[in-house]
Amino acid sequence: MHKNTPLVSSWACALIVTAMSLCALTALGQDARKTVSNPRPVYPEIARRMNLTGVVKIELVVGADGQVKESKVLGGHPILIDAALKALRDWKYERASSETKIQVEFKFHF
User: Fold this and answer.
1) How far apart are CA 81 and CA 76, in angstroms?
2) What is the structure's pLDDT at 17?
3) Cα(36)–Cα(66) distance, integer angstroms
4) Which terminal Cβ of the chain has fewer Cβ within 10 Å, N or C?
């Protein structure tokens, strides 16, 4: 697999460096819903040893209460998908008047 060159905002860069690896986050539809808690995925040790990089795309349904109700994987390597889904279990958004669909993209590289 080739290494992707991520477009990362400056706020994300400061938060996402972990032990010689980087996971950048891009969210579409997040303008309407702000995150209250969005821990970054842990770059899997096996992925690092395999020099595995890539992008994981996931569509979320966020309930009015701010909890992630559903997640649908749109693409990515299974090892990286697992890491992204584990992180998403702890994501929380601000409350809103209705559900929101949000696409998130995690870019794993080192």
Assistant:
1) 6
2) 33
3) 9
4) N
pLDDT digits (tens, 9 = 90+) for 18-67: 333 456 666 665 556 889 999 999 999 999 999 999 999 999 999 999 99
C-alpha to C-alpha distance for 97 and 107, rounded to whole angstroms: 31
* Cα–Cα–Cα angle for 49, 52, 54, rounded to 5 degrees: 155
User: What CA–CA distances, in Å, run from 38 to 15, 49, 59, 91?
Assistant: 11, 26, 15, 5
The C-alpha atoms of residue 35 and residue 12 are separated, in whole angstroms, by 13
- Whether 85 has a pLDDT exceeding 90, the answer reads yes
Residue 74, token pair as written in the block: 């749109």
Whether 62 and 93 have beta carbons less than 8 Å apart is answered as yes
